[in-house]
């Protein structure tokens, strides 16, 4: 298996633009997580899905952030409009049994909003 | 929600020495405690984990201990090597099934 796949790996955009991050989880994993990593706040859980259904989105910082999982092999995290404080590394992770076993992280997307 | 505190934030040791990283958690119902290693520019990867019904677990040079009463757990790395240099994160899964990470410890092993 190729592991968790994320695209793009790097994204530079201007404030106010829409940004879409993409994730393909490991086949057979029922849980998908979106995290944000910054120096100040560390690794923060934004939202997670179980069987394509959003279970907890309490970590989503604002209405500007939205996430979808239309099928078991694809998820998106969208920021609209983007702001400089959204600059961070965004990780997608997947697991077989939620947060009670290993989560496999993707390589991350480094987002820079100027 | 769960709060995970991690100390120290940076740790520098000589090759061959031991390193200890400590974490505390707030939710007494937390029952799963993984440790992740993140090398510079890379993704976090699980190195060891422990569940609440176990007090200690060892895997070669790394070990984790858990004290449920005190709500703290620790990572021990023996015979450190330069390739152990990385950021280490502790984490805890609380009663709401969410994984909360500590702020990380930057470990530097000097040759």
What would you say about this model in short?
Helices cover about 0% and strands about 55% of the residues of chain A. Chain A is an all-beta fold. Chains A and B meet through strand 5 of A and strand 5 and strand 10 of B.
3D structure, described in words:
The complex is a heterodimer of chains A (114) and B (111). Chain A is built from no helices and eleven strands. In chain A, strands 2, 4, 5, 6, 9, 10 and 11 form a seven-stranded mixed β-sheet that branches. A four-stranded antiparallel β-sheet of chain A has the order 1-3-8-7, with no helix packed on it. The mean pLDDT of chain A is 95. In chain B, strands 2, 4, 5, 9, 10 and 11 form a six-stranded mixed β-sheet that branches. Chain B has a five-stranded antiparallel β-sheet with strand order 1-3-8-7-6, with no helix packed on it. Chain B is an all-beta fold and 111 residues long.
Helicity of chain A, as a percent range: under 10%
What integer value in Å does the Rg of chain A equal? Answer: 13 Å
Strand content of chain B: over 45%
Main sheet makeup of chain A:
7 strands, mixed
Our measurement of the CA-to-CA distance between the termini of chain A, rounded to an integer number of angstroms, reads: 36 Å
For the largest interface, the chains and their residue counts are: A-B, 18 and 20 residues
Helix run count of chain B: 0
Topology:
The complex is a heterodimer of chains A (114) and B (111).
Chain A: E1 5-7, E2 10-13, E3 19-24, E4 31-38, E5 42-50, E6 53-56, E7 65-71, E8 74-79, E9 88-95, E10 104-105, E11 109-113
Parallel strand pairs in A: 2-11
Antiparallel strand pairs in A: 1-3, 3-8, 4-5, 4-9, 5-6, 7-8, 9-10, 9-11
Chain B: E1 4-7, E2 10-14, E3 19-25, E4 32-38, E5 45-51, E6 56-59, E7 62-67, E8 72-77, E9 86-93, E10 99-101, E11 105-110
Parallel strand pairs in B: 2-11
Antiparallel strand pairs in B: 1-3, 3-8, 4-5, 4-9, 6-7, 7-8, 9-10, 9-11
